[in-house]
Write a structure and sequence with these properties.
Helix content: over 70%
Number of helices: 3
Largest sheet: none
Number of strands: 0
Distance between the termini: 39 Å
Length: about 90
């Protein structure tokens, strides 16, 4: 079970770092669905991992990060969905 929690933590760290790297290189935008999704997934994984490890300060930061990111993420997904409804294939 420890390997699963560690793997979840590493996936989370990788997602957050990948999002930041892609943002800095101009490959994605800060308000785009890819950046927001990577951050959300990364924070969720890190929140799980740090909660199980009882690293409460880190778990709290990741839960707050999730809460901050949920509204922009939902808006970005809604924007994609509305584009699909109008016949667009890409956001």
């Amino acid at each position: 079970m420890n390997w699963l929690i560690a793997t979840i933590g590493w996936v989370g760290a990788g997602c957050v770092l990948l999002a930041y790297l892609l943002l800095l290189r101009g490959r994605i935008s800060a308000d785009g669905s890819r950046y927001l999704s990577l951050n959300f997934l990364g924070s969720a994984c890190l929140a799980v991992s740090t909660s199980v490890a009882r690293a409460w300060p880190s778990a709290a930061v990741n839960l707050v990060w999730l809460a901050i990111g949920i509204v922009p993420l939902l808006r970005a997904w809604a924007k994609i969905q509305s584009g699909r409804e109008r016949g667009h294939t890409r956001p």
